[in-house]
Write a structure and sequence with these properties.
Blueprint (H helix, E strand, L loop, with lengths): L2 H21 L4 H23 L12 H26 L4 H11 L6 H8 L4 H17 L1 H9 L7 H30 L2
Helix pairs in contact: 2-8, 3-4, 3-6, 4-7
C-alpha cells in the first residue's frame, strides 16, 4: 500500500476541513467557482496517474461480471436514486438533483477497498476501474438531462463542455507522461 493510499482518508478529511474553513472567510464564495474546475482537473490528473491499465482487457474476459457491474452502477443506481428523490424530496428539486449527483458517481477507489474487505476479486475490480471511471465522469450530463432537466434550469451544453474539459486535460497530460516514460525505457 502506497503512502497516498494509506493516508487518503486523512487527506480527504483535511480537505473537507480546509474547504469548510475557507467557506467561513468572507468573499471566498465569490472566487470559489473559478477554482473548482482547475482543482478538479488536478485531482483527476492524480487519479488517472494511479490507474493501471495493465489488466484492463481482463475485465472483458468475464463479461457477465462486467455487464452486471455496469448495469448496477450506471442503470439501476440512477433509477433507484431518482425514485428515492421523488419519494423523500417531492417538493425540493435542488435536494433531488444533489442526491442524484452524489449517488450516480460511484467512487472509483473505495470500491476496491470494499471488494478486498469482502474477499472479492480485486484484480477484476481493478480491471473495471478505468471503464467505471470514464463512465462516471461522462454520464452525469446524461443523467441530469434525463432525470433533472424538468426539476431545475440546466444548461447542458455548458455542463457537457466542462465535463469534456475536466476529462480531456488530465487525460492529455497523463498520456504525455506515459509517452515520455515509454520513450525513456525503450531501447
Amino acid at each position: 500500500m502506497t503512502w497516498f493510499e494509506r493516508f487518503q482518508p486523512l487527506l480527504i478529511l483535511l480537505s473537507v476541513a480546509l474547504g469548510l474553513g475557507l467557506s467561513l472567510i468572507e468573499g471566498t464564495a465569490a472566487i470559489a467557482d473559478r477554482w473548482i474546475l482547475p482543482l478538479l482537473a488536478v485531482m483527476l490528473y492524480a487519479a488517472f496517474l494511479s490507474i493501471s491499465l495493465r489488466h484492463f482487457g481482463s475485465a472483458f474476459n468475464d463479461y457477465r461480471v462486467t455487464v452486471a457491474s455496469l448495469a448496477i452502477n450506471f442503470l439501476w443506481t440512477p433509477l433507484l436514486t431518482w425514485g428515492l428523490g421523488a419519494l423523500f424530496f417531492p417538493d425540493a428539486p435542488d435536494l433531488r438533483v444533489g442526491l442524484l449527483m452524489l449517488l450516480v458517481t460511484p467512487c472509483t477507489d473505495w470500491y476496491l477497498v470494499f471488494t478486498g474487505i469482502a474477499k472479492g476479486n480485486v484484480g477484476l475490480a481493478t480491471a473495471l476501474l478505468p471503464l467505471n471511471f470514464v463512465l462516471q465522469m461522462g454520464l452525469p450530463p446524461v443523467y441530469l438531462a434525463v432525470f433533472a432537466q424538468s426539476l431545475v434550469g440546466l444548461n447542458l451544453w455548458v455542463l457537457g463542455a466542462r465535463v469534456v474539459t475536466v476529462l480531456s486535460v488530465p487525460l492529455a497530460l497523463v498520456s504525455q507522461v506515459l509517452l515520455r516514460l515509454r520513450t525513456r525505457t525503450s531501447p
